[in-house]
Specification:
With 406 residues, the chain is an all-alpha fold. 77% of the residues lie in helices and 1% in strands. A hairpin with a 2-residue loop joins strand 1 and strand 2.
Length: 406
């Protein structure tokens, strides 16, 4: 196992902290904010597509990091462009113009999750990655502190429903650009090698699907992402409708809990098989939607909190587990694209399928007023999809031995 100096480890942790902080600062409450600008619920649905649209750019950006530019420079440039687009969005009042700016933001910001993961994996032992990734969970959770401080200490009651969320996001993204340049150099491994159309589109990582077990894992991940992305996109809308006060803080309770689960991952990998760990993560997804369904039926808010707090176990195992599988399978020259593939599949294609199902089909059917929905059936559908993903994984997937012996 590779060893690494503590200074480099700290730098990678800081990078992961900032990289995961800059997105939820504005995205967590963007739907409630857009609702204040227009009564047309279509804008809320379209905001749910932002992650998916941005993730479609991930393979191309990751290809650039694999073939042309140092990954550190790619990360810094993406963060800088994101900061600029967020600043422009803050100056706009027309939902159409704001949305256009946010599409630009996500096109540059979504791929950074993959690039940051690849940088960390290039300089740290594979089993150290969960510790580094845990700092991302801290960063995501700490994004809520900005809202709490603005509301509680500066008296900006409508902070989470104002353009100030974009200014906050721009400031964090600018900080992320500076910090990215402080990371250890990560030159492109495939620089100078022959390039095909698949390379130009960042699709070379699809070669990983020749591995049958990774192909099965990808299919299960995609299915699981439909209910998981449903939570990512519309949880703030749900919390707003059921009258939670601190939307961002409540939503981020799950990410705060994620920290503990991330720190447990290395121990779990030592004591348990990869398949057992993944089953726990998928089981947590089932538990979440059992809780949300119970809350929608009974009105007991404690079920909502249980569903939110389990988020870390779901993300920490399901997403990171697939990232680790991809890292073990991919050759060095495809390291960025392999991570880009995982994030494109989960937060890209999975997001688009989730919005298509829930945003365009299910939620409109259960809209009871302009700003109120009956959430029972949508949550029961999510529960059913989670159960199906868990069953398919248990029956079809067999983990490679190297994932259990590392």
């Amino acid at each position: 196992m590779r060893e690494m100096k503590s200074g480099k480890m700290i730098r990678l942790m800081v990078m992961m902290f900032i990289q995961n902080m800059m997105f939820p600062v504005w995205f967590t409450t963007v739907c409630p904010y857009v609702s204040t600008l227009s009564e047309d619920s279509l804008w809320v649905v379209l905001c749910g597509l932002l992650i998916g649209i941005g993730m479609l750019a991930s393979p191309v950006v990751c290809m650039v990091a694999d073939r042309f530019l140092d990954s550190v420079k790619v990360l810094a440039l993406c963060n800088l462009l994101s900061a600029g687009a967020l600043a422009v969005a803050a100056l706009m009042t027309d939902p159409a113009w704001i949305y256009s700016c946010l599409v630009v933001v996500t096109v540059f910001q979504m791929p950074t999750w993959s690039v940051a993961a690849a940088i960390a994996m290039a300089h740290a032992p594979t089993r150290s990655f969960p510790y580094i990734r845990a700092c991302g969970s801290i960063g995501w959770a700490c994004s809520a502190v900005i809202s709490v401080v603005a509301i509680k200490f500066f008296g900006i009651a409508d902070f989470e429903r104002s353009n100030l969320i974009f200014w906050a996001g721009a400031a964090v993204a600018l900080m992320g650009a500076v910090i990215a340049l402080m990371m250890p150099s990560t030159p492109p491994k495939a620089k100078g090698t022959p390039m095909s159309v698949a390379d130009a589109l960042g699709l070379r990582a699809l070669v990983l699907l020749k591995d049958r077990q990774f192909c099965i894992l990808s299919g299960v991940l995609l299915l699981a992402m439909i209910p998981l992305q449903w939570y990512m996109n519309y949880c703030s809308v749900y919390l707003d409708e059921v009258k939670f006060t601190y939307l961002s803080a409540t939503y981020n309770l799950g990410t705060a809990a994620e920290l503990g689960f991330m720190l447990l991952l290395p121990l779990m990998f030592k004591k348990m098989s990869f398949k057992s760990i993944m089953l726990i993560g998928l089981g947590a997804l089932v538990f979440r939607y059992a809780c949300f369904s119970a809350a929608a039926i009974s009105g007991i808010r404690a079920f909502d909190l249980g569903a939110i707090l389990i988020h870390g176990l779901i993300f920490g195992i399901v997403i990171v587990g697939v990232q680790l599988h991809a890292a073990e399978l991919a050759p060095p020259e495809l390291r960025n694209q392999a991570q880009g593939y995982v994030m494109t599949l989960s937060a890209g294609v999975g997001n688009l399928l989730s919005v298509a199902l829930f945003g365009f089909l299910v939620l409109p059917l259960f809209k009871v007023s302009d700003k109120q929905h009956d959430w029972t059936v949508p949550y029961l559908i999510s529960f059913g999809l989670a159960v199906l993903a868990m069953i398919l994984f248990a029956v079809l997937y067999k983990a490679p031995k190297k994932l259990d012996n590392k």
